[in-house]
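Comment thread on ticket #2218

A.B. wrote:
> Attaching the input chain for the structure job we discussed in standup.
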Amino acid sequence: MAGEAGDFTVTLVKQPRYIIEDKCTGCGTCVKYCPVEYPDPFNQDISANKAVHVYFSQAIPLVTYIDQSCLYLKEKKCLICEGVCQTGAIDLKQKAEKAEIHVGAIILSAGIEPFDPRVKAEYGYGKMQNVVTSMDYERLLSSTGPYQGEVLRTSNKKHPKKIAWIQCVGSRRVTPGENSYCSGVCCTYTQKQVILTKDHDAAVECTIFHNDIRSFGKDFERYYQRAEKLPGVRFIRSYASIVKEIPDSKNVVVRYATSDDGVKEEEFDMVVLSVGLNPPVGVKALANLFEIELNAHGFSKADSSNPIKTSRAGIFVSGAFQGPTDIPESVFTASGAGTQCGELMDYRRGKLATERVYPPERDVSREAPRIGVFVCHCGANISSVVNVPSAVDYALTLPNVVYAKEQLFSCATNSAKEITDLAKEKGLNRVVIAACSPRTLEPLFRDTLREAGLNQYYCEMANIREHCSWVHSRQKEEATEKARDIIRMSVARARYLEPLQEFDLPVNKTALVVGGGIAGMTCALSIARQGHEVCLVEKKKELGGMARRIYSTLEGLDVQAYLDDVIRSVYQNPRIHVYHDATILNVSGYVGNFITTVTSEKGVSQIKHGASVIAIGADVYQPTEYLYGQDDRVFTHLELGEQIAKKDERVVHAESLVMIQCIGCRNEDRNYCSRVCCGHAVKNALKLKEINPEMDIYILFRDMRTYGFREDAYREASDKDVKFIRYDVDDKPQVKAVKADGKSVLRVTVPDPILGQRLELDADILSLAAAVIPSASTLEIAGLFKVTLSPDHFFKEAHVKLKPVEFAADGVFLCGTAHYPKHIPESINQAYGAAGRVMALLSRDTVIASGSVCEVRETDCISCGACITACTYDAIEFIDTPLGRKAWVNPILCKGDGLCNAKCPTNAIYLKHFNNEELCSQIDAAMTEEAIIEQIDAAF
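C.D. wrote:
> Ran it. Output below, let me know if you need it in another format.
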């Protein structure tokens, strides 16, 4: 690779796969005759023990490839696979190919590698048959796994009745071969595995050996509680070691210790090693190739002020290459990396794009329904429970069904093309896809109809995965019967589907950002740097938000200097228009064309914009406990950080200081973790130790949640004699002001679970980890923008994993602590992610409005206004018509939720694509006439 930002030349080497993809049908004949065999029971291939593989992929479901164990590739022997292939898809003489590409920017998304416990013999992995990694266990749980979704022991293929999980394998350890950092995801994925295990077999006993439970993500605390409360589940706080394997039973003995019982040994049928995350394989070679710096752990070296950029201009990183991270963070950092490429190369935007052209739409409205049914295996998610071939046969017996077929993955590129081709070939005018939820894939299947020259609203989806196979995994016969019922109902509805037309709406190229903290300003700057006007609305008289009270981060960022730079950049950017001391009075309009009325120092303004970003930040809980507000020696962590920065003599020269964690959260009122508090406590402790090494500092915690690289700071604090004492929520610390040795102190009493005694700590200063709580204006803003809130009253994203910066309301986006508490680098990441999604909207000239909207029959409307009251989108109003004052639905504002339709007492409003005829036909088909008569007869 050579060049500089804006003009890189990259040489790619494409290694041969020895398969001609267009010719491969995935029939598996080559696999059958391949003479090479080796065991790999947890691989997700359906032919893992061969040199020729058929691999399940979401994009292309049956991808054949040949690995290096092939006898021809190794020794130029054996061409059996070439000989038996009926389509000529195998070519073992393929050579590596080089290609040179010219690009303006590069994104490195190298990901991570699961820790391999074979490097530590003490784990017994690879030697003891019933010791598996968490990745192996994922394969066991999967319907495409080695035992088709059954959890079986490798030793005897029987169901384990007693399973142990050992946490922090390869993480939070400074021993050779392991990692000192916390991998961040292991606690929660283990809880997921426990929940799924209990779903597979409610009688299984599950034991989790853990250190801290780090459920710091959004809704993770509730998820932990859900797992903890399951019958037969134990969470034991202890380091655990594997002692031996029982020769006869192949059971595994685990040694651990508890404060009550001391050291114990216990036998388990299976042990799961919850492995951490390593940097990607070959990361040093990758770094050398692209000339970027790595951190001490082998991940991309991050800049706290912009973790997405690398040490080389024009090269960015996303996902876990920044460091161990979860799916939502990976998604919005990917969007953020995209938007930073956009900042660099905005001048090229749209230059390489080509408009997709669909064939002319056929008018089939007067034709008799000719329905095609495609039943998806979904790998084995559906077919491992539902008898798919019998469902196909049944579909062929239904009225108006002229064709039916099963597909391995209907959403795959080749399967979607097959639906298009068959619709043309068989003269289909309606299509039923019996597969998964329409929530994510319906647009894809509608597109296949457009490619066939059909109106996309002739597509109907029958959800036989979430509504059937996943919830009836142990009732295969009944599930198959239910799948038939669902297909029958969908076919009945498909007969009455009507063609609907969508329409284009122009996009206003301006963005509105609500909130002038770090997240809001970062998002605004990124959008403005890509050529768009931004209106930045801030409720206070100055920009900066909560960051004005933060002076440094654990990563070493000088927050105030950084904040000054960002604010200066905002004011100097001519495309950003700042409204101070602002209050939003009203929001109207729709995606691409919003109108927001704001009062500010500029007076009352109407802002017209195409997209909105909510970045209003969060507030800090004001404690009512532990003498806060009564004694001036009691601070919150935020206030303590301010006093340290100001070198307050009382604080920096105190003899002793106690911090108490989890104040105002992880309780009945706020059942969530505030995520940042443990890191802030460690940061303040290290700052104080730097100034006054002799100070006695105690941190009283429930779980230390210094996830990721913050674990190193936690260890550093411990090495500097900061004392960490765990307390239980049922026996919280007690605080009172007393005199001791003629000195006024704050006496903190706390039980020590290790010593089994109550400790009395006399402190000069007490600092409380006050919870991060939703902003006071959250409810008001949510109402104005018609967006929803989570149970904890933070803003609720459209999809926690796949759309972490978007709302269900189109054109409205989210970033920063308004979404959930997070550290400054994380808020910056998400701000860039939101900017990326905004740019995906504003870079278009038009947006498409759905055809599935409500319409009023004026002759039936009695002008009662019930529909107007029901509509949450203000899409309905009264207008004057020749028949008098009647309700009218604005199709642009209507979201097609059907509330007005259900509320109308005269049935004057109907919802297109969900009209009475379509729905009633579906209901009527739910039970056959024979089944109804049978039930009546049985009742009498």
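A.B. wrote:
> Thanks. Noting for the ticket: Confidence is low (pLDDT under 50) at residues 43-47, 56-61.
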